[in-house]
Specification:
cell division, 10 strands, Prot_kinase_dom, five-stranded antiparallel sheet, Transferase(Phosphotransferase), domain 1, 334 residues, Phosphorylase Kinase, domain 1, Cyclin-dependent kinase 20, alpha+beta, 30% helix, developmental protein, three-stranded antiparallel sheet
Length: 334
C-alpha cells in the first residue's frame, strides 16, 4: 500500500468499497478494490480468486486492466486502471443523450470484449450496464469479473445458477439450470442492446418469478421446438405461467430500424445454442447501415464527477484512509 495514495471513493463492489487512488511517484490514477476476509479460516473467496486468475490472463483493450495485487491487513487489494464513468451513468445522462452512432460504437466495443473473453474460455456471468466502464478517452471496458468462470466446451460440468443480475439473467438460469454455456452472456448482451435502444431495461422484474413472467409475456411461451430440453430444467415444473403469444417486436422497439431489431432478436433466443455469437454479431448489417458507428474521437469523454451525478449517496473524500478501510471492514462483517 505504500506505493499508492487513496484520494476518494468510487463505489461498492461485490466484496466492499472500491476506492480511488494514485500511484505515488507517477501520479497515475487507479482504482483500489479492497477485499477483507470475513473469516481467516475460510481463506480467500473463490469468486475473488476467479476474478484475479481471469484478469491476469486477459489482455484486451475492451476489458478493464488489473495492474497489481498485494496483501493488506486481513485481506488484499486489487489495483485497476481508473475509469471515471460507466454505461449505466451514460444511459441516465439526460442532458447528453447518446446518439445512434455512439450506441453502435459502444456495442462494438462490448462485443469485441465479450468475443475476447469467450475465445479465451471465460464466461463473465454478470454483464450489465453498471459493469461496463468508460475511460477518459471514451473506450468501453468490461469490468467486475467476480462471477467470471473458466469453461471448456468438451467438459459438461455444473455451475451455479445464482449468477447474473436479475434483469439480465438468461431464462435457463431463471429455471435453475446448472449446465449452461457462455450463451448466458449473449442473452445479457441482447438485454443491454435493448436498453440502449429504448433507454429503459427490457425485463425489469422485482423477483425471479416476476422476471421470468415478464420474459415469457414479452417473447411468448416457449415450445419444445424453440427451446429443446426446457422441461428438464430443475425448476421448470415448480411454477406455471399462462400461455402467451408474446408482444410484437415492432411494439417493443417502435422507433428502431429493422437491422437493430433483428440483432436484438438474435440474442434474445430461448435456446442458448442458437444465440448469435459475439464474433458473428460484429459483422451484422446493423453496424454497416447509416448512420455508421461513431469514431472514438466523437465518443463521450466522461470527466471527474460524472459518475457521482447519478449516485444517491456521496462520500466524503477527505476521510482518512484508515477510516475508509474501517468502513469497508464494517460492511463486510455486518
Amino acid at each position: 500500500m505504500d506505493q499508492y495514495k487513496v484520494v476518494g471513493r468510487i463505489g461498492e463492489g461485490a466484496h466492499g468499497l472500491v476506492l480511488r487512488g494514485q500511484r505515488l511517484g507517477t501520479g497515475q490514477e487507479i482504482a483500489l478494490k479492497r477485499v477483507l476476509l470475513k473469516k481467516l479460516e475460510d481463506g480467500i473467496p473463490t469468486t475473488v480468486i476467479r476474478e484475479i486468475k481471469a484478469l491476469q490472463e486477459v489482455d484486451c483493450e475492451y476489458v478493464v486492466q488489473l495492474l497489481d495485487v498485494f496483501p493488506q491487513g486481513l485481506g488484499f487489494v486489487l489495483v485497476f486502471e481508473f475509469m471515471p464513468s460507466g454505461l449505466w451513468e451514460m444511459l441516465r445522462d439526460a442532458e447528453n443523450p447518446l446518439t445512434v452512432p455512439q450506441m453502435k460504437a459502444y456495442m462494438i466495443m462490448l462485443l469485441k470484449g465479450v468475443a475476447y473473453l469467450h475465445e479465451h474460455s471465460i464466461m463473465h456471468r454478470d454483464l450489465k450496464p453498471a459493469n461496463l466502464l468508460i475511460s477518459r478517452d471514451g473506450v468501453l471496458k468490461i469490468a467486475d469479473l467476480g462471477l467470471g468462470r473458466m469453461f471448456w466446451a468438451e467438459q459438461n460440468r455444473p455451475y451455479s445458477h445464482q449468477v447474473a443480475t436479475r434483469w439480465y439473467r438468461a431464462p435457463e438460469l431463471l429455471y435453475g439450470a446448472r449446465y449452461y454455456t457462455e450463451a448466458v452472456d449473449l442473452w445479457a448482451v441482447g438485454c443491454i442492446l435493448g436498453e440502449l435502444l429504448t433507454c429503459s431495461p427490457l425485463f425489469p422484474g422485482e423477483t425471479d418469478i416476476e422476471q421470468l413472467a415478464i420474459v415469457l409475456r414479452t417473447l411468448g411461451t416457449p415450445t419444445a421446438e424453440t427451446w429443446p430440453g426446457m422441461t428438464e430444467l430443475p425448476d421448470f415444473n415448480k411454477i406455471t405461467f399462462p400461455e402467451t403469444r408474446g408482444v410484437s417486436w415492432d411494439q417493443i422497439f417502435p422507433d428502431c430500424v429493422p437491422e437493430a431489431v433483428d440483432l436484438v432478436k438474435k440474442f434474445l433466443v430461448y435456446n442458448g445454442d442458437r444465440r448469435l455469437k459475439a464474433k458473428q454479431a460484429l459483422v451484422h448489417p446493423y453496424f454497416f447501415t447509416l448512420p455508421l458507428p461513431c469514431q472514438l474521437s466523437g465518443m463521450p469523454k466522461p470527466v471527474d464527477g460524472h459518475r457521482h451525478q447519478f449516485k444517491v449517496k456521496e462520500y466524503d473524500i477527505e476521510k482518512p484512509v484508515d477510516e475508509l478501510f474501517s468502513d469497508l471492514k464494517g460492511m463486510l462483517t455486518s
